[in-house]
Amino acid sequence: MILSLLDFRYIITHTLWIAKRYIERIAIVSSGGGVSFSGREVVEWMQKIQDWNPKFFTLSHIPEKYLFYVSKFIRRVVIARMAEAPDLAGAYHHKLREAYETEDELKNQDVLRVNKEHLIRLLDEVETQLNETAYIAGEEFSLADVTLIPVLARLVLLDLEDEYIRSRPNIAEYWLLVKQRPSYKKVIGKYFDGWGRYRTLIRTWCFVRIRSMLKRY
Question: Domain GST C-terminal, which positions (predicted)?
């Protein structure tokens, strides 16, 4: 099956949920310092951001005709990663079970509505906070910002930047600011900005397809 670039655009948004927790940690390492690790405000903001489930929101914005293939692609990626790292099989089994459960919950419109409302409240709170400070937990870049950046990157990949980011002036300015950080350019921008998003997906898609073909012979 040959996918168009439009197909790639929708599928790549789902690679983020696999990489999200790793991106948060890599960004800290690659930031070259200047990251605040502690503080009550940092912890509180991290908890608020992590309380929102991005999977429901992302999947609900994929056209129905692509949804089955995307779900299948996610499961194949998880299985491929499991084969690469047998020691982490338990964690990947959990991810696989989550993928199936998410597909079932997507049929519940109340779940999707509550999830969207949760995101809007979160972004509105961030917008208010950024009216007072340069970053969401104060005047210094912190782990709270590291946790928020993948959320904003996800919205951009879903072509929802106008609705959720640019419509909030403080977040729009903040987004421009954090994208200039070396950590963003190295960890996220390099792979997900512009054509980088397609290169990243093509490599992952080819890996999964080649592995599937080899298993047949």
Answer: 75-202
